Amino acid sequence: MTSIPQDLVAATSIAPEHKRDMDLAIKYACQGPRYTSYPTAPQFRQDFPLDQYKAWQGKDGDHKRAPLSLYIHLPFCNDICYYCACNKIVTREQGVARQYLSHLETEIELQSQLVGDKRPITQMHWGGGTPTYLDHAEITELMHTLASHFRLLDKGYREYSIEIDPRTIESSTIALLKGVGFNRISLGIQDFDPLVQKAVNRIQPYKEVAPLVDCIRSHDFRSLSFDLIYGLPHQDRYTMSETLRKVIALRPDRIACYNYAHLPERFSSQRAIDRLTLPEPQEKLLLQQIISHALQDAGYLHIGMDHYVLPDDELALAQREGRLQRNFQGYSLHMADDLLGLGVSAISQIGDFYLQNERGLDAYYEMIDQGQLPSTRGCKVSSEDRLRRHIIMGLISELKLDIAECNRQFGIDFTTKFGDELKALRPMEQDGLLDISEEEISVNHRGRPFLRNICMPFDAYLDDHRGDQPPPRFSATI
Ligand code: SF4
């Protein structure tokens, strides 16, 4: 039986150290990037050097044979979840998946001509939207097309994962996914509380999810992940404790707990959520602490900012060995330096470039019909960007930065170059969030919820936006 820390749950007996953390949540509440890339997406421009990217891809070299990750974006959903900030299209119109699939397959052909077919695909992720919006024949066809144009692997160490919406999946689909080569499943759980589910328009009772989990287990997938969200309407310490009990009973291998970002001016579906039903920043921090205590008490290890894994999971080992990476899908094993994104709005991180595909479906189709690569925004990473990316990704993945190693790798004197940044971190050090020595910056357990704040001083672009454009709007860091 899992113990949920009662001093956290009981409203009238919050221990002094938890009260202190809540005060810190108020102090550091601000908006900031999630750092799934650096530079972050607002820095991607339409006038990025696509020709240079193509020229680099045209040359022979190690990058034509090195491992590669694929991300495939499948944007359609049957219904809207009000909290959603994904690039998705809610429709039940007949034939939309067929039309999308034929364009995606043409893109796969175009991209593979450029990237080559020699690179072993060590990781692949189908995300969305709802990837299983595709029917069985379409899923099989898409995997066949990918296998015809890229070097897919059947090795046990590959990580081929797919996101599943528990509301729309049948057991026969689970069997099919295993059969076409997926070995990891990610389930969007979010919260088990009926009132919370109703408020976000995503009804999926525990009694329907539990048999699905049994079905996935019976097909012997290598790993099952749950996505949870905290900060949703009507969530409080009691509902969260109950959700965690159910989650722990199902014992997924990995759990990602995302902080809900309420940005109704950017995401219109979020306007259906009553702001007054959302937990305040202090309550959100409390929810985060309840999650952290309950999952660690149940044997999970806390990884990076917001992931929890069973101790024998590869991510736990990867964090110990410094092989954890953060990218657009969150945290994963570092099995390939490059990620190729396919499909509308998909982002690639490849060589010195970030590229994002056209975000509008009609414009994406038009470019594909004209035989063009659909990349319409991006940036070339400079040597300064690479250095800052190393620092930010080290802090947000490993929770530390080895200063001597950074000096060696980039030929700098860290303390001189980043004097202002270190100065900005001093108040956080005084608040007990991190330690700074000559050898390293290390984030302690109290600093974990503030990782985005800790990275922000190293982001050279936060105050740098074009005069003719509004500053980028980020989500709340806490
Ligand atoms: S949360 Fe997932 S299923 Fe819901 S609307 Fe967004 S992409 Fe679709």
In short:
This protein has 478 residues and is α/β, with parallel strands linked by helices.
Can you tell me about this structure?
- The structure is a single chain.
- The protein is of the alpha/beta class and 478 residues long.
- It folds into two domains: 41-342, pyruvate-formate lyase- activating enzyme (Alpha-Beta Horseshoe); 383-464, Arc Repressor Mutant, subunit A, CATH 1.10.10.920.
- The protein is built from 17 helices and 22 strands.
- It has helices spanning 6-9, 16-28, 50-58, 96-115, 136-149, 171-179, 194-199, 206-218, 237-250, 281-297, 314-321, 361-369, 383-398, 403-410, 414-417, 419-430, 451-455; strands at 31-32, 68-74, 76-77, 89-90, 120-128, 151-152, 159-164, 184-190, 223-230, 254-259, 301-303, 307-309, 324-327, 330-333, 338-342, 347-350, 353-357, 375-380, 400-402, 434-436, 440-443, 475-476.
- The strands form six sheets. Strands 2, 5, 6, 7, 8, 9, 10, 11, 12 and 15 form a ten-stranded mixed β-sheet that branches. A three-stranded antiparallel β-sheet has the order 16-17-18, with no helix packed on it. A three-stranded antiparallel β-sheet has the order 19-21-20.
- Helix 9 (237-250) links the parallel strand 9 (223-230) and strand 10.
- Helix 2 crosses helix 10 (281-297), helix 4 packs parallel to helix 5 and helix 9 packs parallel to helix 10.
- The protein is globular.
- The chain binds iron/sulfur cluster.
- Iron/sulfur cluster is lined by residues 77, 80-81, 84, 86, 88, 128-130, 165, 188.
